[in-house]
């Protein structure tokens, strides 16, 4: 599920119109409409407000992060791994990648 679908679905589940959501965020209604169409994406401030207002914090990875690009992460294990990976230093990430490649030596 893409961010546009998540926003639309969560907004409707909260019983909010596009105009009401826009007012709470501090943007105009057309911004919300464009997000839901997928023609634009919310900026960081708007995304933070959306996560708070629509209670979608745990379902969206940061916008612009590959490979998710704001898509829904439904599996709690996958979300935990993603959060863990992002908490690692560059050196620890390299060690994990090397461990996953069977037969490759692990560098300290």
The outline comes out as: elongated
Distance between the termini: 39 Å
Order of helices and strands: HHHHHH
Structural class: mainly alpha
Largest sheet: none
Helix content: 55-70%
Helix segment tally: 6
Radius of gyration: 18 Å
Description:
- The protein has 108 residues and is mainly α.
- The chain is built from six helices and no strands.
- It has helices at 3-13, 18-25, 29-37, 44-54, 76-87, 90-100.
- The longest helix is centred in the last third of the chain and has 12 residues, at 76-87.
- The radius of gyration is 18 Å and the shape is elongated.
- The model is unreliable at 62-67 (pLDDT under 50).
Keywords for this entry:
108 residues; mainly alpha; elongated
In short:
The protein has 108 residues and is mostly helical. It has helices at 3-13, 18-25, 29-37, 44-54, 76-87, 90-100.
List the helices and strands and how they pair.
Layout: H1 3-13, H2 18-25, H3 29-37, H4 44-54, H5 76-87, H6 90-100
């Amino acid at each position: 599920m893409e961010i546009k679908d998540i926003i639309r679905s969560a907004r409707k589940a909260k019983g909010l119109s596009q105009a009401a959501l826009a007012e709470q965020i501090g943007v105009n209604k057309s911004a919300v409409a464009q997000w839901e169409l997928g023609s634009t994406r919310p900026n960081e401030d708007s995304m933070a407000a959306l996560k708070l207002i629509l209670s979608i914090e745990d379902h969206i990875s940061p916008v612009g992060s590959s490979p998710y690009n704001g898509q829904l992460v439904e599996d709690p294990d996958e979300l935990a791994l993603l959060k863990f990976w992002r908490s690692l230093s560059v050196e620890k990430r390299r060690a994990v990648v090397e461990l996953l490649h069977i037969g490759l030596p692990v560098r300290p």
